[in-house]
Predict the structure.
Amino acid sequence: MCLTLLPYGGVRFAVHAEQVRNPARVTGHVVSAAEKDGRYELTMEVMAIVAKEIGPCRKAWVDHDLDGANILGARVAPKTRARFSLRFEPGEASVEVCNLDNEARCRRLTKARSPTDVDVGIADRGCKADADCVPIALGEMCTPCSCANGAYVTDKRQEILDKAERTSGECGPTLQVTCPACPSRRAVCRASRCVLVDASDGG
């Protein structure tokens, strides 16, 4: 089982589903949260449950909607709610997740990078002038709001966009929220690397 806490209250579980071979992605959002004795008790509303299966002619993977899945022994379904508690270890190296709807059945998960997190990698290297650099919004792709937070070399444009698009395809439904204004930034070349600076930075 995997748990990803997404921006703006999004939640995603990856769990075993009996009716399919591949893990099911249970996507939802937090509708209420409270801290109690060092634990965070969350109520999650399930938005969708999908799993990847081989499509027609066995040429591509496609998402199939599922009518339910089990999270720590409790069945969840789209448009229903489930209750969990989270207790983070010091430094957030791991988290104990408990399903409060199933006699507090728990599992400890080790912290790892989100599978839908994308970075520039080495695509920010090799610029010669500011015109060689392009700003881009990367990081966690499953967020309803995104602002430019990185920069890369123009020659790597298609490679980066393809990677971001493939990853975004794993997100499922996202919340409809009012996004804050993005800070004004521009991409520049500094020491042969593309970086973001404030738009007012004339250096």
